[in-house]
Amino acid sequence: MSGAVKGLSGLKTRELGRCHIHLETVDSTNDYLKRRAGELCHGASATASLQTAGKGRLGRQWLELPDKALALSVLLAGYTPAQLGQLPLLVGLAVSQGLEGLTGLQIGLKWSNDCILAEKKLCGILCESRILGNQVWTVVGIGVNTQQTAEQLCGLNLEYATSLFLATQKYWDIAQIGGEILNKLEEILDIYALSGFSALKTAYSERCVTLGKKVRIVDADRETLGEALGIAEDGGLICRVDGQEKIIRSGEASVRGLYGYT
Ligand code: BTN
User: Fold this and answer.
1) Ligand 1 pocket test: which of 23, 26, 30 has the largest number of ligand atoms within 8 Å of its C-beta?
2) What is the model's pTM?
């Protein structure tokens, strides 16, 4: 089945995006779906032309200009708290594959799930959950920089960011990007349901630009240096720190390269 709804086009999914809400303005598409969890079904999605309080990881803001970026969130039911460490990586894999298929650009992943193009950030992902009764609802939020110019990104103090427009000198159809991301995400979540994280770990690791690098691990009150060695079964980043192996969990710390953003 294929179809177009406002905010999404080229959808070939069974469930994801089949119930879709496009909002002209909203505080945050993630918060919108979290508020409506339980009322909307698994796979419901939301996009917005403008988010007035877009949220990033680790309590940061996510800044955007009207109609210059994709702001997409999807509501998922049935993931256990233990799977929530793996899910961000799977979403990153789906987004990078979807964007690569559509644009032909080579897209890497900075652990845990930033999509990277030429060492700059193209897309950020924020996974959040809400428990209602005995059901865990997960909201996956995806922000892709699509149409911004270098001046617009600098104006938002996003010097480390890039956009599809900057890379290709072309304005992309934001709805088509959203549709393709959901197509890929459903494909990846199907593999995950059938064969588990291990079936996708190699594909993730091959794209992960963090692995093999010396990194700065930044948490609330300190910064440590380490070397990124691999991806753990729970989605954590295995690092060597002070001669010892340690697993860093997404949500607890951010990891930066020693030189530049990645
Ligand atoms: C990050 O890199 O810090 C994560 C950014 C996630 C941004 C997206 S945009 C759609 C959704 N709604 C939000 O408020 N945040 C996510």
Assistant:
1) 30
2) 0.95
